[in-house]
Amino acid sequence: MSALTGVGVSPGIGVGPAYVLAYEATVPAPGSRHGGDAPAELALAGRALERVAADLEERGARAGGEAREILEAQAMMARDPGLADGVATLVGAGAAAARAVYEAFGHYRDLLAAAGGYLGERVADLDDVRDRAIAVIEGRPAPGVPEDTGRPYVLVARDLAPADTALLSPDVVAAFVTEQGGPTSHTAILARAMGVPAVVACPGATSIAPGTPVLVDGASGLVRPEPSDDEVLGARDAAAAREAVLASATGPGTTADGHAVPLLANIGGPRDVAAALEHGAEGIGLYRTEFLFLDRAEAPSEAEQEAAYLEVLDAFPGGRVIVRTLDAGADKPLAFLLPGAHEPNPALGERGVRLFRTHPEIMGTQLAALASAAARSKGRLQVMAPMVATAEEAAWFADACEAAGLPSAGVMIEIPSAALRASDLAVRAGFLSVGTNDLAQYALAADRQLGALTGLQDAWQPALLDLVALAAAGAAERGRPCGACGEAAADPALACVLVGLGVTSLSMSAPALPAVRAALSRHTRRQCRLAAAAARAAASPADARAEARSHLPGLAGLAL
């Protein structure tokens, strides 16, 4: 079998026989109904959910550390009052317990999946709780993996849940490989905490025959079945060399000729701060505040928001913390904002800053909480609005921030019109930040949620690079900084290209920071500009990547 490639999320080399987790959850048949005793059926569902919650808590207590926090959060999902109400309503209407649990979880699943990014990767956690509860109701064994086979194995699965992996150790598992997941999935988080190599988003992984020897490179994303002794030795030597390079690049981000490029982290909340600090983040470039608002019947209070913001600000005294105001609406519906609303074209609907204009009380509370947190902390708060399309919207948001006592108001560049007229937006916006994920979606008419269009979402698309260059130039014309906080910044080669395009800071998932820091330190600003020009001149993403790398010789030593 030929080598496979995924996304390396936990560095290191793992070698062992493949243990392929082939568990397939059953979906209760639509229309499944109970025999008429609704109270008994509801009690059955309640017992199942409580049994799952208790089991998750017990596993977390045994595992300790970060795994305990993750599993306790899953237990809270199983005990969520809103979920219980949904199950009760469905059972009351005649649905069988298993089907009621399945449908009740579906509502929350859709919210997280639509949010994408960090929040989207919590879908796997919801699915795991749901599947375990349904297994209990139906009297079937829950998903699981062996805790000891006598020899470390490579655990291969479509996806993994925290309960599957929390009690494992490097003595039991040599590496993780999944077909799904991303850099902020709990598989990635736990693998890094355990010090186990891991590769996610690896198509075809579950086609590896059980027992096949597998080599896993958790840095490059290489998964090689039946490797030769020489291949294993070469991979280990390359990994050791790469670690030496990463370890040698420390301190603030800078190019080889001393051009400063602050390296920041993207987070979903206070829980992510530890990883950001561990990987040397100089601050926070994107604090997604959606996590406070999702799955709620009403908006969080000002005090609750202030506490969440203050915790992150205090972790970076003197450092920059850029908070994105609530990005909700349309594809991220919130019941207390748009009850029962339906839009035929959600990606082009009422979301982000547009929603604030129809719900000023939500924005007012959030800005007040941010101002209060900033006043109590030594962290340097900056606030930015999502989905800004025009200079008028940028000015309106800046005025609102100023009125709330927040002097540093910026805007996201996620819409082509904003990139094209960045200079106009920067008249009132104090800084710009390019969100490459949404900018690619709108520039290439490619829905981020549609897997068939993944190729059009490639951040190396030359047209997307053109828009980034326009945004950076527009900001520079007004003397404003222009950062990048989309996933593009996590690619070391593309990070160099972004600097060459004029981007002034880079924000990414925390584990990507060391490799990006090392890549910048090995190239001059001139090399970055040459790489950027070569990428923009290419006709396809593949050509853009290849042409850029030809101007970035220092990447070879990083084995990327």
Supply the key terms.
560 residues; alpha/beta; 8-stranded mixed sheet; 8-stranded parallel β-barrel; 22 helices; 45% helix; 16 strands
Structure commentary:
This protein has 560 residues and is an alpha/beta fold. 45% of the residues lie in helices and 13% in strands. It has helices at 38-63, 65-78, 81-92, 97-115, 117-120, 123-138, 162-165, 186-194, 229-248, 273-278, 302-314, 353-358, 360-376, 391-403, 416-420, 422-425, 436-443, 462-477, 492-501, 513-521, 525-537, 541-550; strands at residues 4-5, 7-10, 13-21, 153-157, 173-178, 198-200, 213-217, 222-225, 263-267, 283-288, 320-324, 380-385, 409-413, 432-434, 482-484, 505-508. Strand 10, helix 11 and strand 11 (320-324) form a beta-alpha-beta unit. The longest helix is centred in the first third of the chain and has 26 residues, at 38-63. The model has no long low-confidence stretch (mean pLDDT 88).
Which structural category fits the helices and strands?
A: alpha/beta
**Share of β-strand residues:** 5-15%
Number of helices: 22
Strand order across the largest sheet: 1-8-7-3-4-5-6-2
The gist of it:
Helices cover 45% and strands 13% of the residues. Strands 1-8-7-3-4-5-6-2 form an 8-stranded mixed beta sheet. Strands 9-10-11-12-13-14-15-16 form an 8-stranded parallel barrel, surrounded by 5 helices.
Secondary-structure map:
Layout: E1 4-5, E2 7-10, E3 13-21, H1 38-63, H2 65-78, H3 81-92, H4 97-115, H5 117-120, H6 123-138, E4 153-157, H7 162-165, E5 173-178, H8 186-194, E6 198-200, E7 213-217, E8 222-225, H9 229-248, E9 263-267, H10 273-278, E10 283-288, H11 302-314, E11 320-324, H12 353-358, H13 360-376, E12 380-385, H14 391-403, E13 409-413, H15 416-420, H16 422-425, E14 432-434, H17 436-443, H18 462-477, E15 482-484, H19 492-501, E16 505-508, H20 513-521, H21 525-537, H22 541-550
Parallel strand pairs: 3-4, 4-5, 5-6, 9-10, 9-16, 10-11, 11-12, 12-13, 13-14, 14-15, 15-16
Antiparallel strand pairs: 1-8, 2-6, 3-7, 7-8
Helix pairs in contact: 1-2, 1-3, 1-4, 1-6, 2-6, 3-4, 4-6, 9-20, 11-13, 17-18, 18-21, 19-20, 19-21, 21-22
